[in-house]
């Protein structure tokens, strides 16, 4: 799992580079964030208060980690920080909508609804970044949306939740906002050595915006009482810091098939924990909706067939010089095996976030990045 290593600038995180070693932190991170909605309910805080202090209590730890990253790797580019701040705007919207969804439809179902973002990310990336989604995404999305419809309770009487239809709308809106957060955070934090810095900028921005939104709505309590504060501290440290960093640092190092399974741990775990800890009992149709959403996510995030990957490799293979070679233009090169594992080196250029004047080469990916909810 993730380890700590000593350097001249202090203790820093060293993330696993081997797929087998990356599984443990990914699972632990998914379990940590599965408790997010449970802790929100246990705090009995208003939606705005929970959003404010999930971010505020996480800032000291994230700030310390970000400072150490900057000392070790140098300051981040101003543009990257601006993109991370923009991501914080979407994160604030996501938290506010999701916490209202938790109050209306329950902690477990709200988490399932927000995880629809896994299928929505490729579609938004297609519209905004011209990253065309695969057929699996287009096949999985209708199934996931059918699940949202069943969870909303509009097809039955006596569905679980104070207002399940409104809760489903809030949850789906939270998922859409989370898409914007993930895509912007990915663009502003593509260097996997820098996980805390972009998250710190986004979290700080979200904290300020949630305070403003809470004051406008009128449900913000800026000095939470005990034991509510204790639950919110636990939420911040377990989900916003530990869980998020573990997942962000490990999922990109895992194969797509395993990633798709790990992404279901949070919604499944939240539904189970909500039933055991909070006594939530969704109806049969709502549980069927949970199954449909999870099925849609598995279809959308499944592995790309080997033949398709091989064809992409053949079309985009380029010459990659020996490891460590540096040409006259200052470009660094690192050869890698092709995704199909059949000889040859595949390199794609990528800008180095810590130094905008140089380019380094990393292995091409066969899937889009996904993040935790």
What can you tell me about this protein's structure?
By secondary structure, the chain is mainly alpha-helical. The chain folds into 2 domains: 23-303, no CATH class; 306-364, no CATH class. Helices cover 63% and strands 5% of the residues. It contains 15 helices and 4 strands. It has helices at 19-34, 36-43, 47-56, 59-73, 78-105, 107-114, 117-129, 135-151, 164-188, 196-217, 228-250, 256-262, 265-278, 284-300, 306-316, and strands at residues 3-7, 10-14, 348-351, 359-362. The chain has a two-stranded antiparallel sheet. Strands 3-4 form a two-stranded antiparallel ribbon. A hairpin with a 7-residue loop joins strand 3 and strand 4. The two termini are 21 Å apart. Residues 3-13, 15-19 and 306-370 have low confidence and may be disordered.
């Amino acid at each position: 799992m993730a380890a700590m290593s000593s350097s001249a600038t202090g203790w820093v995180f060293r993330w696993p580079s081997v797929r087998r070693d990356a599984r443990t932190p990914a699972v632990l991170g998914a379990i940590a964030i599965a408790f997010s909605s449970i802790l929100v309910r246990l705090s009995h805080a208003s939606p705005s208060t929970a959003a404010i202090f999930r971010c505020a209590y996480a800032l000291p730890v994230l700030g310390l980690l970000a400072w150490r990253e900057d000392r070790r790797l140098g300051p981040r580019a101003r543009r990257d920080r601006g993109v991370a701040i923009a991501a914080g705007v979407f994160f604030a919207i996501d938290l506010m909508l999701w916490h209202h969804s938790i109050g209306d439809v329950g902690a477990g179902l709200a988490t399932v609804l927000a995880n629809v973002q896994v299928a929505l990310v490729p579609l938004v990336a297609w519209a905004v970044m011209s990253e065309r989604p695969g057929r699996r995404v287009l096949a999985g999305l209708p199934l996931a949306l059918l699940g949202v419809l069943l969870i909303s309770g509009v097809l039955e009487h006596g569905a679980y939740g104070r207002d399940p239809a409104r809760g489903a709308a809030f949850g789906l809106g939270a998922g859409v906002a989370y898409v914007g957060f993930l895509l912007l955070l990915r663009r502003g934090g593509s260097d996997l050595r820098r996980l805390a810095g972009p998250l710190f900028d986004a979290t700080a921005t979200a904290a300020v915006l949630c305070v403003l939104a809470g004051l406008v709505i009128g449900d913000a309590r800026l000095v939470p009482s005990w034991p509510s504060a204790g639950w919110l501290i636990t939420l911040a440290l377990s989900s916003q810091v530990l869980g998020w960093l573990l997942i962000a640092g490990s999922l990109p190092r895992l194969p797509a098939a395993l990633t798709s399974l790990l992404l279901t741990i949070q919604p499944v775990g939240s539904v189970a924990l909500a039933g055991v800890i909070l006594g939530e009992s969704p109806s049969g149709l709502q549980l069927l909706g949970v199954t449909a959403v999870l099925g849609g996510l598995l279809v959308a995030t499944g592995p790309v067939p080997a033949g398709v990957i091989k064809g992409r490799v053949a079309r985009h293979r380029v010459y990659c010089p020996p490891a460590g070679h540096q040409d006259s233009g200052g470009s660094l090169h690192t050869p890698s095996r092709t995704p199909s594992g059949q000889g040859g080196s595949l390199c794609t250029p990528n800008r180095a976030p810590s130094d905008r004047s140089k380019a380094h080469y990393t292995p091409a990916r066969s899937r889009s990045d996904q993040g935790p909810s």
